[in-house]
Amino acid sequence: MSGLDKTVVLVTNLDRAAIEAKLARVREAALAKDLPDLASLFIGVEGMPRVQIESNVRNAVRWLADKPGLGHISAQLQLVEVNLPNLKE
Questions:
Q1: Is residue 63 in a domain?
Q2: In the chain, how long is the greatest CA-to-CA distance?
Q3: Domain of 47?
Q4: Is residue 5 included in any domain, yes or no?
């Protein structure tokens, strides 16, 4: 294997608390990268209605799709997106 090979672990059992925690980290990462519009999608994510979280995550993933250098944020959002069915109201 080359030095560039990476193993990706797909976690599909995140509960609401874990999803909210990941989105809070995404918010902080977005602020650190001077992306206030992205960060604003996840202000008050703790306790946010499921529908709003789903919409904000999907909008953020689409917005990041053509932004180079933000793969780490995009990867976290994609992980959350896979876990959206686990959200409970």
A1: yes
A2: 44
A3: 16-86
A4: no
Calculate ∠ Cα 39-76-38, nearest 5°.
15
pTM comes to 0.85
Residue 20 falls inside a structural domain: yes
Q: What is the spatial distance between Cα 79 and Cα 14, in angstroms, rounded to a whole number? A: 9
Residues 8, 31: Cα–Cα separation, whole Å: 25
- The pLDDT tens digits of the residues spanning 10-38 come to 788 999 999 999 999 999 999 999 999 99
By CB neighbour count within 10 A (0-12 exposed, 13-18 middle, 19+ buried), where does 27 fall?
Answer: buried
Residue 6 located in a structural domain: no
